[in-house]
Structures are given as C-alpha cells and as structure tokens.
Amino acid sequence: TPVIGVLALQGDVREHLVALAAADAVARPVRRPEELAEVDGLVLPGGESTTISKLAVLFGVMEPLRARVRGGMPVYGTCAGMIMLADKILDPRSGQETIGGIDMIVRRNAFGRQNESFEAAVDVRGVEGDPVEGVFIRAPWVESVGAETEVLAEHGGHIVAVRQGNALATSFHPELTGDHRVHSLFVDMVRASRTAESL
Ligand code: GLN
Predict the structure, then answer these.
(1) Active site residues
(2) For residue 45, which atom of ligand 1 is closest to its CA?
(3) Backbone angles phi, psi at 53, to 5 degrees
(4) How many domains would you assign to the chain?
C-alpha cells in the first residue's frame, strides 16, 4: 500500500487525508523534512498559497520539497497546491515562492469576484464515468502550458487540470466532494512510480 503525505502547514489537510484513505492509500500529514523523506507521494492541499509558501520556508521544507519533486516523487496539488506546483505565477505576492514542477503559468484568484466560489461539472481526462463535480473556491486557472504539460480539463475556456510526468494539479477541490476518483488516479500514479523504482 502506498504511503502518501499531505503537506500540513495550512489548508484543507484533513479532507485530503480522508480522501486518500478512501482511495486505499496510507495517508499521513507531513511538516518536516524527515516526514517528507518517508512518503511515496505527496498532496499539496487547498488553502492560501502565500501562507503555505512562507511556512514551507520557515519549516525548512521548501528546498527538500523542490528536491523530491525534481527527483520524480508523485505530487498532486489542489487550488493553492496547484499554485505551489507552477513553475511561474503571474501575480505573486511579495515573498511568495513556489515549489515548481509543472511547466505552466498560473493566475491566482483568476475566476474573479463575481464568481469567487462555484461548482461545475468538469470532464477530467483519465477519470472514467460521469464528470467530476468541480468545487472552485477563489480558484486559480492555468494561463498557459509548456510542450510537456498535458491538459486534463478545461472550464469556461480555461485550463483547470494538468499533468506533467508525475505531477498532477487541479484548480478545484475533489477532496470536498466525497468522490474519490481523482485521488484514485493519483494513488495509481504513486503505485506506478513505486513499481518503476523497484524494477
Ligand atoms: N486563492 C488561494 C490562493 O491564492 C487559493 C484558494 C484555494 O486553495 N481554495 O492561494
């Protein structure tokens, strides 16, 4: 059974732990570099990306995170977590850094004031069956992607789910819906990467 961490500095950590357990992973919170070293994959939760960035630096886990993502550890970011995985953000706040890992430019709070929170059915490539119920909360969108980044979903003409190698990101929050199919997709990515390592 894959062991998957949830970066537990700020944000909806508990919901991801529940969703990962429902998707047949062993899930545990990760705050320190020693805890990061013990997991097969990592979820970056929704929350506030500037706060998560600053706490990651403060806890000394930012560079270890970058090293593991560069080394190919499977990683999944939702909303603020998507922002953390962007190689570039359009409108960073001062002191805001990202881990990077996905060749994309992300616009924070992109859906705007009139539409700060909403739900929409989203077809996600790689998720079988009905569309996923997308919960968007002051969500980012992906402004543009590089050649190696695969677009998995769009909403209203904007990219809202992507994958590059072992890194997956969604603008929306599957952990809030009780539908574990996106988490299962990620758990499968972690399983596949463990198999590849042990060959
Ligand atoms: N707007 C938040 C940010 O910029 C993300 C919101 C969320 O994670 N639901 O970090």
Answers:
(1) 79, 173, 175
(2) 8
(3) -60, -50
(4) 1
Please tell me the pTM assigned to this model: 0.96
Reported as a single tens digit per residue, the pLDDT across 111-156 is: 987 778 999 999 999 999 999 999 999 999 999 999 999 999 999 9
Please work out, in degrees rounded to the nearest 5, the angle formed at the alpha carbon of residue 9 by the alpha carbons of 149 and 16.
Answer: 60
Atom of ligand 1 nearest to the CA of 109: 1
pLDDT digit string (tens) for 153-169? Answer: 999 999 999 999 999 99
Ligand 1 centroid – CA 1 distance (Å): 31
The domain that holds 26 is classified in CATH as: 3.40.50.880
Residue range of the domain that includes 8: 3-198
Look at residues 178, 193, 71 and name the one whose alpha carbon lies nearest to residue 135: 178
> Rounded CA gap, 53 and 81, in Å?
10
Which of 10, 15, 96, 109 best tests ligand 1's pocket when mutated (most atoms within 8 Å of CB)? 109
